[in-house]
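[Discussion] Sanity-checking designs against the backbone

I'm trying to build intuition for which residues belong where. Below is a structure token string of 119 positions. I'd appreciate it if someone posts a full sequence so I can compare it with mine line by line.
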């Protein structure tokens, strides 16, 4: 109930945001960094299933179903975002709306990773 007042505005009062800066080694291609981050995010889906869990109808329990390879691709397409138009993670945070799953957002201009999740 605490966070409900922001929902009609498309905002979330108690989101959790974590930012990490990444400095690629000299000569490490940016497109490879993006693919490795995406691959790592997919791996985390299995290591930390809550990232891909959904809320059950009772609104108390979480349900996690081991995804097929195709379901994993779909989940990654929804939850791993490359923010090409923003210059910083702080700029991205200002645009975020409530999401059913955690997001990992890569900001290539600042080499920042933003983890975003509902509380």
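Best answer:
Here's mine. Compare freely.
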């Amino acid at each position: 109930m605490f966070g409900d007042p922001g929902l009609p505005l498309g905002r979330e009062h108690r989101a959790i945001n974590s930012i990490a800066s990444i400095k690629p080694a000299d000569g490490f291609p940016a497109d490879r960094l993006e693919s490795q981050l995406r691959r790592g995010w997919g791996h985390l889906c299995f290591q930390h299933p809550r990232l891909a869990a959904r809320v059950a109808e009772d609104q108390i329990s979480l349900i996690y179903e081991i995804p097929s390879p195709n379901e994993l691709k779909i989940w990654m397409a929804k939850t791993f975002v490359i923010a090409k138009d923003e210059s910083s993670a702080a700029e991205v945070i200002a645009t975020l709306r409530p999401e059913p799953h955690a997001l990992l957002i890569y900001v290539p201009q600042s080499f920042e990773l933003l983890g975003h999740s509902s509380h």
